[in-house]
Amino acid sequence: MPNYIMLVKLTDQGIKTIKEAPGRVDAAIKTFEKVGGKNLAVYVVMGEYDYVAVGEAPSDEVATTFALALGSLGNVRTTTLRAYTKEEFAAMVKKLP
Question: Which of these, 10, 33, 49, 50, has the minimum number of CB atoms within 10 Å of its CB?
Answer without folding.
Answer: 33
